[in-house]
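User: My collaborator sent over this chain with a note saying "see what the structure looks like." That's all I know about it. Can you take a look?
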Amino acid sequence: SPSSEMNDMRKLSDIFCEKYPHDLLFLYYRNNEKTSFIFKTHRQNKKINCSALTKNLITQFGGKGGGKPDHVQGNLPSEKVELFISELKKTLENL
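Assistant: Without extra context I'll predict from the sequence alone. Here is the result:
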């Protein structure tokens, strides 16, 4: 079920952030036409604000979501995920 997938993604993202506190993680689960995602960094990584980075992109690509500076979660139309990731990479490269 989608809620158990999201639970698993949250657990994985927590493990990742503990192990790699300076890195970013974009994790997603495609469920037919909707794709759920988590974009996360360690809460002590103040160089990155996940919420600010994704706020406009999520709506631009027809998705819903939000969160805190260290953790954003939401969903996107599945056909827009690759474009979303590509734009997010460009945004990160320009930081």
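A starting point for your reply to your collaborator: Residues 66 and 72 are 5 Å apart (CA to CA).
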